[in-house]
TrEMBL record:
GO terms for molecular function: kinase activity; metal ion binding; phosphoenolpyruvate-protein phosphotransferase activity. It catalyses: L-histidyl-[protein] + phosphoenolpyruvate = N(pros)-phospho-L-histidyl-[protein] + pyruvate. This is phosphoenolpyruvate--protein phosphotransferase. One of its GO terms (cellular component) is cytoplasm. Its cofactor is Mg(2+). Belongs to the PEP-utilizing enzyme family. Its main location: cytoplasm. GO terms for biological process: phosphoenolpyruvate-dependent sugar phosphotransferase system. Residues 176-263 form the HPr domain. InterPro entries: Dup_hybrid_motif, HPr-like, HPr-like_sf, PEP-util_enz_mobile_dom, PEP-utilizing_PTS_enzyme, PEP_util_C, PEP_util_CS, Phosphohistidine_dom_sf. Residues 22-126 form the PTS EIIA type-1 domain. Its EC number is 2.7.3.9. The keyword Cytoplasm applies.
Length: 856
């Protein structure tokens, strides 16, 4: 006989099971144990052991301890009905875990508002164990010892009560009976109905098993029953052996049919995993006919990347394909579908060759297309008289639906891939080339799209695109940042009228005014071409002096560095006059791939950039994912409000190995003095202190004697307000105006409805910048700006007037920015900045700046 102590899997108020607002748990039907009303959203392992099963709805998980005790951890009451929404599993069936390992996490607001209660249970569900020594009716910390479980012996003797397979019992080999019934409860055999079935099965001395979809489970084990992953309308076969088996089978089958205490749902059997949803593919919403050739139209949107471009429209809409339902003969439709698939596969191979660093994505897409169930599903519909488009769309959506319901977030991610492939094949069927990114578009094209994604721009060479017009999108999205790096004038949030612009129409993208002019008169096209050319000439002129250090007209030194988002950007930035890199967005290394880059791979890329910068400073921002930049291989909990959730340093602190590997890669770059580490989304000095401690530890491990500067990004308003305290820990501060503006104005930077007002020149944002500078001055720390405002010439005099001495801008604007700064006098900048602080709006501030510097 041995005893194990279980640690609290959650922090919160510990309570006896009798107080749980769920009769099955309260009466001990599921097992004996305790409950906790949680104050945290992470469920951790109460002991060392192995994960027996994570429920399909990710709200419950069972661990088998070395003693053989099977411990069910069940988050909340009536949470199975959320079907996984709000829950994230961090472990898989069969995975060994140590006490304190993260098992499940959940969105407290979402689950709290939708479930009956958040009270969570920890119960021992198998026989042969007794629970003792519970700590209840008090607050407990996660990890505190709270319960003792006696029983079991050596690990080897642990009986696999939950294992699939017929359970042997005293009556094995005697009378046998079985009956198949339909399970008519909404959420399958979750904890409560499983417990009811177990209680009834245990009354029978012989073996009782349940068979479902080819799997067998011991009906006397809650875990085994839950592990079957049953859903409503599944067929269950009850099998019993031993004396009185027929009566037992009858009574258990009746119990199952009556719902085992859950409400009965009526309805047809669910679609098989391969079945597509019944609904026909949606037909595009009517937005009006395409604009007639030569029809002059002005569309208004939001400024995203300044500059003006003149060119020819190239439509790259993802969703505007109208689908004809009726086919023109099965043989013809099958031929069309197979042809389209071949073209998409060829396009993917081509893309993998052109972008070897992203090859894994394209290979994964090819694998998905090769799935026989997908093709078979489509061919079945074609055989029934449907068109290739209709059949393909239905099959792809059906598969996407199935994938999106899977508990494994990595698999659920593939649903998005399928939606993408659905569109690519539809595009190929409509006779257009299936598009993979924008790398191959004709030079100078004005690309029209619902929304450009970062991956679309991943392999695009500088100078290829003329301009971008998006139906949706916000001005500070990461795709826009890439567009800015490429110097492509971009207008976003134009609305669906942009879909009416025909392919090949003449278009002017005015990124300075946020306008799209369709088929303007020939004179306007000419005049704009002239203006674009003279601006380019001025830029050429400015580029000649761009390599000289930058000072205002009265001698104040302002450093102008570049924001970089990929390795290949560095040489071009130096050519443009960058004095170094003030923000390396390292996400480029982590996004759009199937696993995290190794420390070595990171080191090589950082070293390459440092080499390309030729000894100039390189500020490397640690990974800033989460929010709008999810990583497929880093499952984060589904958050209702991701930009206020796990982003930036919060992810790094939660996944310390990821952060430490990146820190080590940066520390290895030579010469030792060139790199600085910058940490995103810092809200308080303690976070930076933790990262600094990691840096020091890794530095010691690598035996690196030279210190390295560690700075904080000021993006969270609280960080700006405590800049004096932050400066005690930080060697430098760098203001991320994109996020700072979003958080100060409470406007989502990706939301087109508020995009027009999202302006860093709002006096509220400017006041926080002043406060940051004032706080940093106490200890003489440098304040840089690396957000979009640093690339906006109108912001430059204000930022300089507020005391910012370093601007990190998109490379394309550096030459013009330096030339403009050289014309400024610091006294004017201070005066205008002071006036701007007491204005009412960003609009007023912009008016003040243009009145003072009319040439802007
Ligand atoms: C910012 O927020 O201003 C910034 C520079 O970071 P990112 O745009 O990458 O979020
Ligand atoms: Mg940011």
């Amino acid at each position: 006989m041995s005893a194990i102590t279980l640690a609290a899997p959650l922090a919160g108020w510990a309570m006896p099971l009798e107080d749980v607002p769920d009769p099955a748990f309260a009466q001990g039907l599921v097992g004996d144990g305790m409950a906790i009303d949680p104050t945290v959203n992470e469920l951790r392992a109460p002991c060392d052991g192995v994960v027996l099963s994570v429920h399909r709805a990710r709200h419950a998980c069972t661990i088998r301890a070395a003693s053989g005790a099977e411990v069910l951890l069940h988050l909340g009451v009536d949470t199975v009905g959320l079907n996984g929404e709000g829950f994230t599993a961090h472990v898989r069936d069969g995975q060994p875990v140590r006490t304190g390992d993260l098992l499940l996490s959940f969105d407290m607001d979402l689950v709290g508002s939708r479930a009956h209660s958040l009270v969570s249970m920890m119960v021992v569900v198998n026989d042969g164990f007794t629970v003792d020594g519970r700590t209840v009716n008090r607050e407990v910390a996660a990890g505190a010892p709270v319960m003792t479980v006696e029983g079991g012996t050596a690990p080897a003797a642990a009986a696999p009560a939950a294992a699939a397979g017929p359970a042997a019992g005293p009556g094995a080999g005697g009378e046998t009976a079985e009956r198949t019934v339909r399970l008519r409860i909404a959420h399958g055999l979750h904890a409560r109905p499983a417990a009811a079935l177990v209680a009834a099965a245990k009354a029978h001395p012989g073996a009782v098993t349940i068979l479902c979809r080819g799997q067998t489970a011991n009906a006397k084990s809650v875990v085994a029953l839950m592990g079957l992953g049953t859903v409503a309308n599944d067929e269950l076969t009850v099998r019993a052996t031993g004396p009185g088996a027929p009566g037992v089978v009858e009574s258990l089958a009746g119990l199952i049919e009556s719902g085992l205490g859950d409400e009965i749902v009526e309805g047809p059997p669910p679609a098989a995993a391969t079945a597509a949803p019944a609904a026909a593919p949606a037909v595009a919403e009517e937005i009006g006919p395409p604009f007639a050739p030569g029809e002059e139209v002005l569309l208004k949107g939001t400024i995203a990347v300044p500059g003006v471009a003149v060119g020819t429209a190239l439509r790259r809409f993802r969703a505007a394909v109208t689908v004809r339902e009726e086919g023109r003969g099965a043989a013809e439709e099958e031929r069309r579908l197979r042809g389209a698939l071949d073209r998409v596969v060829a396009g993917l191979s081509d893309a993998a060759r052109r972008m070897p660093e992203h090859a894994a994505i394209f290979q994964a897409h090819q694998e998905l297309l090769a799935d026989p169930e997908l093709l078979d599903g489509a061919l079945a519909d074609i055989g029934a008289g449907k068109s290739a488009e209709w059949a393909w769309s239905r099959a792809a959506r059906g598969q996407a639906e199935v994938l999106s319901r899977l508990a494994d977030p990595r698999m659920a991610e593939r649903a998005a891939d399928l939606r993408d492939l659905e569109q690519q094949v539809l595009a190929a069927l409509s006779g257009r080339e299936p598009s993979v990114g924008l790398a191959g578009v004709p030079e100078g094209s004005i690309v029209l799209a619902d929304e450009i994604l970062p991956s679309d721009l991943a392999g695009v060479p500088a100078g290829r695109l003329g301009g971008i017009c998006m139906v949706h999108g916000g001005p500070t999205s990461h795709a826009v940042i890439l567009a800015a790096a490429l110097g492509v004038p971009t207008v976003v949030a134009v609305g669906r009228q942009a879909e009416r612009i025909p392919d090949g129409a003449s278009v002017i993208v005015d990124g300075n005014r946020g306008e799209i002019r369709v088929s303007p008169p020939a004179e306007a096209m000419e005049a704009t071409r002239g203006a674009v050319a003279s601006r380019a000439a001025r830029r050429e002129e400015n580029r000649r002096t761009a390599h000289e250090p930058c000072r205002t007209a009265d001698g104040t030194r302002i450093e102008v560095l570049a924001n970089l988002g990929r390795v290949s950007d560095a040489p071009g930035a130096v050519t443009e006059g960058a004095e170094g890199c003030g923000l390396l967005r390292t996400e480029f290394l982590f996004l759009e791939r199937q696993s995290a880059p190794s420390e070595d791979e990171q080191y090589r890329q950082y070293q390459q950039i440092a080499d390309d910068l030729g000894g100039r400073p390189l500020v490397i921002r640690t990974l800033d994912v989460g929010g709008d930049k999810p990583l497929p291989y880093l499952p984060l909990p589904k958050e209702e409000n991701p930009v206020l959730g796990l982003r930036g340093v919060r992810v790094g602190l939660r996944e310390p190995e990821l952060l430490r590997a990146q820190i080590r890669a940066i520390l290895r770059v030579r010469p030792a003095g060139v790199c600085r580490i910058m940490v995103p989304m810092i809200a308080s000095p303690a976070e930076l202190r933790t990262v600094r401690a990691m840096v020091d530890e890794e530095r010691a491990r690598l035996g690196r004697a030279e210190p390295i500067e560690v700075g904080a990004m000021i993006e969270v308003p609280a960080a700006a307000l405590v800049a004096d305290r932050m400066s005690i820990v930080a060697d430098f501060l760098s203001i991320g105006t994109n996020d700072l503006t979003q958080y100060v104005l409470a406007m989502d930077r990706g939301n087109p409805h508020v995009a027009a007002q999202l302006d860093a020149l709002h006096p509220g944002v400017l006041r926080l910048i002043r406060q940051t500078v004032a706080g940093a001055e106490v200890l003489g720390r440098t304040v840089a700006v690396c957000g979009g405002a640093a690339s906006d010439p109108m912001a430059a005099p204000l930022l300089i007037g507020l005391g910012v001495t370093e601007l990190s801008a998109t490379p394309a604007v550096i030459a013009d920015l330096k030339a403009f700064i050289r014309t400024l006098r610091i006294a004017d900048c201070r005066r205008i900045a002071e006036m701007a602080l007491s204005l009412d709006s960003a609009e007023d501030v912009r008016r003040l700046v243009t009145e003072t510097w009319p040439d802007l």
